[in-house]
Amino acid sequence: MTPSSQVDDRGSTLPIYIWVTGILLFVALAFFAFAQAASARNGAQSAADAAALAAAQESRDELMEGLGLAIENGDGDEWLDWLSGDLLGDGGAQAAADSLAAENDATVTDLFATERNGYPGWRAQVTTNYTVGDSIIPGTESKHAKAGATAIIKPRCEPDSSADPEKAVEFTCEGIDDPIVVDPDDFDLADLPDPPDMFSVHLAD
């Protein structure tokens, strides 16, 4: 091969090399952009999960307080409603959801009571305070990730079939062998099982 042909070969190879390098660089930047978006979505989902769970846990605490007051007042019909989770409160749900979302660098854009499979709960929608960031995809520098989550409150206790709600508070709970019997005339909220033993809180989706 003559020197001139070697130069020609190198000259024709150089544009191909530049073209392939450019393609690889573009693909790498595209993957990076998708990774940025995925990271932002994961962050938004974590914030939504935390917000929904916080709202549900706050409502669980309110259920416990309402149950205790109903027992103290000797209102058998009402304490049965509290025990079943039918009287879902919303006093501190918003504040709890906002706090946990903020800890995950996000803002709650919507929070509302809902129901899944017959169980009460909360649906939280959040938007990240941060953006996806600069990338080769136009607009990502101003795009915020969004996500939603639902947390439900599932009662774990039910009235004993032989209990008289007008006389004594008696119920059985999952995971607790003996029935819970509470005397309304000598009652303290500490007499009840711990909140997680009475109401489980978990994500519905």
Question: Care to describe what's here?
Answer:
It is a single chain. With 205 residues, the chain is of the alpha+beta class. The chain has one domain (3-203). Helix content is 45%, strand content 25%. The chain is built from 4 helices and 7 strands, in the order αααββββββαβ. The chain has helices spanning 3-72, 76-83, 93-103, 195-198; strands at 106-116, 119-131, 144-155, 157-159, 169-173, 180-182, 199-203. The strands form 2 sheets. It has a 4-stranded antiparallel sheet. A 3-stranded antiparallel sheet has the order 4-5-6. Strand 1 (106-116) and strand 2 form a beta hairpin. Helix 1 (3-72) packs antiparallel against helix 2 and helix 1 (3-72) packs antiparallel against helix 3 (93-103). The chain is elongated, with a radius of gyration of 29 Å. The protein starts with a helix and ends with a strand. The model has no long low-confidence stretch (mean pLDDT 77).
Question: Topology, please?
Answer:
Blueprint: H1 3-72, H2 76-83, H3 93-103, E1 106-116, E2 119-131, E3 144-155, E4 157-159, E5 169-173, E6 180-182, H4 195-198, E7 199-203
Helix pairs in contact: 1-2, 1-3
Keywords:
205 residues, four-stranded antiparallel β-sheet, 45% helix, 25% strand
Q: Could you say how many structural domains there are in total?
A: 1
Spans where pLDDT lies below 50 across 5 or more residues: none
* Number of helical regions: 4
Strand order of the largest sheet: 1-2-3-7
- Major sheet attributes: 4 strands, antiparallel
Q: Total strand count, please?
A: 7
Backbone CA Rg: 29 Å
Average pLDDT score: 77
Could you give the order of the helices and strands? Answer: HHHEEEEEEHE
Distance N to C terminus:
69 Å
Strand-residue proportion: 25-35%
Q: How would you classify the helix and strand content by structural class?
A: alpha+beta
- Give the CA-based shape: elongated
